[in-house]
Amino acid sequence: MKTNIVLIGMTGSGKSTIGEKLSQQLGMPFKDIDLFIEHTTKQSIPELFEVSEAHFRAIETKACKKIAATENHTVISCGGGVVLNPENIQALRKTGWIVFIDRPIEHIIKDIEIGHRPLLKEGKGKLYQFHEQRLNLYQSFADFRVDNQSGLEDVLNTIKNNLP
Ligand code: S3P
To answer: Where does the protein principally reside (predicted)?
Structure first.
């Protein structure tokens, strides 16, 4: 049964903020896949990337499968690269409704902090490349797309008004 709400979208699109608020408003638990990975491996995302991106991606796939199989009635926020492996989405969509948080790339670039994001070490410019590579994937994997341009409350209401 599809009882989870799964948020996908670019890094900096607002998945975690929206996910946390949505879970509070709907009285559902919240699960962030990156945080789950950090708890279970006891390593930070940058540390896992230091081994290699492939190492992180393999752990990410295991986490998606585990969370999809064990969580229900949960709001799940995914890392931006979750769409790179279709296995991840196949697993998550068995138990979840997939929502694409679509935020204009210019807004993301303006606001994002490179801080802990290993893929942005070379600068924010990389985000244009990721956006180009991933936009079609987000669109094609999503059951529902919401524009994140007009403020948090609007996004939350749009999602709540369109729940399956
Ligand atoms: C990634 C996004 C990050 C994190 C990892 C890889 C990506 O998550 O999973 O650094 O490939 O875009 P956020 O989307 O939460 O920043």
So the answer is: cytoplasm
